[in-house]
# Entry
Amino acid sequence: MHPIRKKRLTIVLFLVAGIAIAVALTTYALRQNINLFYDPTEIAAGKAPQDVRIRAGGMVEEGSVQRDPESLNVQFRVTDYSASVPVQYEGILPDLFAEGQGVVAMGRLNAEGMFVADQVLAKHDENYMPPEVAESLERAEKRKADAEKAAQSASY
Amino acid sequence: MWQFFHKLGSPKWFYGIATRFMPWLLASGLLLLAGGLAWGLAFAPADYLQGNSYRIIFIHVPTAFLAQSMYIMMAVAAVVTLVWRMKLADVFVKAVAPVGLVFTFLSLFTGAVWGKPTWGTWWVWDARLTSMLILLFLYGGVIALDRAINDEKSAARAVAVLVLVGVVNIPIIKYSVNWWNTLHQPATFKLTEKPSMPVEMWVPLLLSVLGLYLLFGWLACLRMKTEILVREQKTRWVKDLVMAGRG
Amino acid sequence: MAFDSFSAFIAMEGHGPYVWSCYAVFFILVAGMMIWSARRNRAVIEGCKRRFDQQQGTSGRDARPKASATFTRVEVSQD
# Structure
């Protein structure tokens, strides 16, 4: 390669590397702000500020959803399977909201550790499948659980 | 190899090659895209969770994928412009930037329309969406900077530097969903694993990605040809070509 | 076919407006970009042609007497 081109190429490479490092350091320093939400473990550990508008995200705990029959009040727990946070919300929930589904709630953490949400967004995962497949998957899981239970009771 | 590289630098040579390939690119691109979209819209099964709204994926993913890979191609061309001073590389950047702007806008728009029924919001400032918005501004900036500088050579260099500065945004877009908590879900397609999607969903998606890629190839050839004509309008070969009516 | 009828296909179980507006915007923008690029290409070619025609018109008059003096114009490849 021509020496002048070699020189230009090194300059270009240094330029890109320098910017990459600068951006990497900035995003690393700001990582808490880039994260869209706190997960329940962080909230349980007291990392999330109280009485400041924040977002909390995780899975809706199975069997935790309590709907008030008279109003749009809903209470549920958001979990990441190691800690969970109680959430209170009044309003219309997105269609995809269900137990065992992902959710991101926006609101404030009050002094009692209750998360009072004013907006609830549904978060879904990267898996797509036809309804029949989802059903048969669920059935297979149930069968497996039943078999496990049977094996357990047999061993007693 | 170097000989091929230098040949590639000749606008005349490129013009001939592009003219020969363009009908094939257009026909195969339209065919694949139409096939993929029709399959995805009418024949692919609905999703168990999102129902039919997920059918937006068949345009959301191809446009987002192309917007990013186009930017990578532009960055390679920018290096060639800066190091080898090859005219054709600059022609490529100039011809492709508006296409990238349109595709980035389309992926953001379809994402917003898809987000409303699934997430419950049009827009959220999470890392994936925000970095994609930055990509839109980068494309806009490239176009604006190119227009703002009259001298062809200095415009080419300034644009190349801007493109290279912006290229750090591409890995951020790609890995934002893994590095940070986002509302956007992680990638369905990974290089090392099977797609988390059944065949009857990912085949039409793959078809529309390929189709849009080929259409992009056609668009790039056409727009580069236009740009070459504008730049080389005083040369002998352009005169022969235009007078012979083989535009 | 994933749908029972054409109206079900249009309605998409209530998601129709979202899905169809996405596809409509996609088609309008992509087709628009293709047509606009092709038109600009044509316009540039026409512009070149007009200019070359004009040049030939003006230079042709002066060049004619000379042209008879040179018999053979050999086309030499430029590359």
